[in-house]
């Protein structure tokens, strides 16, 4: 039954491919630059990359896959997780090609003159229109990679689909996973191509226009990197959240009953006090310590986590699985005062309330003076980074800084 289904599926794929073999006029390129430029043997050589061919191929594979699902094949496979947003990528890149590269090509075809790269400026000026598609793709590719690998292993028909796709001449012996990853480097390739063009361009005015395009691409690449970093931070915070079983600073069930408000630990949310682009906290340090609540409190084992904007005191509930319970209310980094004792292996942390008054005294013992020093250094770093982020987002909120002291 599997063999019959496989054969039918492959036959359908071949039929779909044959029906789709239509050239798209605007993507057709001459075999050589001398076919465009008059007196080509007297001109300097110009090279051009056909950026859309790959996206066109992946978009066709996506369409074939959806057709297969329509007739009952692989309906348990999520096409969006396999091909991400390739249809949107193809659409946006086709628009980019039409507004920039095609205009440059047509200008040379019409007048028989060398390719003028400054004509591409129109496409790069609209980079904000197509950049979000790249962000969506790049941020989702890790999940796509893992999902395709899993489906290839667990799903016989999907394995055959991938095998068929990789057998196509247009894949140039690439694996489907490698081919799917190609847009990851598109911004870098644009920049490198433009830099090479600028190097061989004569005339300051034209070089300035090309440099402007390079600057736009570099800014777009930084935006993508920043988005990736934020997503990475969020993923790490979500992993920390998964380890937290409960919040025991108060009776949460009683709180929810009285106030009719669902309790939520917002570690993976953007940090408060940062206005503008969402800023996510990161983990600077986490370690097991001994703690006493007040001078005469009972010494207990705790696990403390220092984030960009807060200090968290937890209790280990299951060491084997790394499960935690939040023992004390989180302390904002700007409301934390820390003081080291003369033996340098003990220190005290106190949260300061909005009226400048201490609300608790937590005595900590580290395993060594080196670990104590590490906590002081990391708290300094986190505080500095938080203020840098706050100022960079132009927050108008005034947060008083609580300084650290070394004690006597």
Automatic annotation (TrEMBL):
It comes from the Eukaryota. Transmembrane segments: none annotated. PROSITE patterns: DH_2 (PS50010). One of its GO terms (biological process) is Rho protein signal transduction. Pfam families: RhoGEF. Coiled coil: none annotated. One of its GO terms (molecular function) is guanyl-nucleotide exchange factor activity. Residues 51-227 form the DH domain. InterPro entries: DBL_dom_sf, DH_dom, PH-like_dom_sf, PH_domain, PKHG5/7. One of its GO terms (cellular component) is plasma membrane. This is DH domain-containing protein. It comes from Onchocerca ochengi (Filarial nematode worm).
């Amino acid at each position: 039954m599997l063999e019959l289904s496989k054969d039918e599926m492959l036959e359908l794929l071949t039929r779909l491919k044959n029906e789709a073999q239509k050239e798209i006029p605007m993507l057709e390129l001459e075999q050589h630059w001398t076919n465009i430029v008059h007196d080509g043997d007297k001109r300097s050589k110009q090279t051009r990359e056909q950026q859309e061919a790959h996206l066109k191929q992946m978009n066709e594979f996506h369409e074939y896959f959806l057709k297969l699902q329509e007739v009952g094949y692989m309906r348990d496979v999520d096409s969006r997780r396999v091909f991400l947003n390739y249809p949107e990528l193809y659409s946006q890149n086709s628009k980019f090609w039409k507004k920039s590269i095609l205009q440059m090509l047509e200008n040379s075809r019409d007048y028989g003159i060398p390719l003028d790269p400054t004509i591409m400026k129109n496409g790069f000026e609209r980079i904000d229109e197509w950049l979000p598609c790249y962000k969506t793709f790049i941020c989702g590719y890790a999940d796509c990679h893992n999902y395709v690998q899993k489906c290839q292993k667990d799903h016989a028909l999907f394995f055959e689909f991938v095998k068929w796709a990789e057998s196509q001449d247009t894949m140039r012996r690439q694996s489907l996973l490698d081919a799917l990853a190609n847009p990851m480097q598109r911004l870098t390739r644009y920049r490198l191509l433009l830099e090479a063009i600028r190097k061989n361009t004569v005339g300051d005015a034209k070089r300035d226009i090309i440099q402007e395009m390079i600057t736009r691409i570099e800014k777009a690449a930084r935006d993508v990197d920043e988005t990736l970093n934020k997503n990475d931070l969020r993923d790490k915070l979500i992993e920390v959240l998964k380890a937290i079983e409960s919040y025991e600073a108060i009776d949460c069930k009683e709180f929810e009953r009285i106030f009719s408000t669902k309790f939520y630990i917002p570690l993976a949310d953007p940090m408060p006090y940062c206005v503008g682009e969402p800023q996510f906290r990161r983990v600077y340090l986490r370690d097991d310590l001994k703690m006493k609540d007040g001078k005469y409190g009972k010494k207990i084992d705790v696990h403390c986590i220092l984030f960009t904007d807060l200090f968290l005191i937890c209790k280990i509930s299951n060491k084997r699985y790394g499960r935690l319970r939040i023992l004390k209310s989180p302390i904002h980094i700007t409301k934390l005062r820390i003081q080291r004792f003369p033996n340098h292996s003990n220190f005290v942390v106190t949260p300061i309330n909005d009226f400048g008054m201490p609300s608790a005294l937590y005595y900590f013992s580290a395993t060594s003076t080196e670990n104590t020093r590490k906590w002081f250094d990391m708290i300094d770093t986190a505080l500095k980074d938080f203020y840098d982020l706050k100022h960079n987002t132009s927050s108008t909120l005034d947060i008083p800084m609580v300084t650290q002291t070394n004690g006597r």
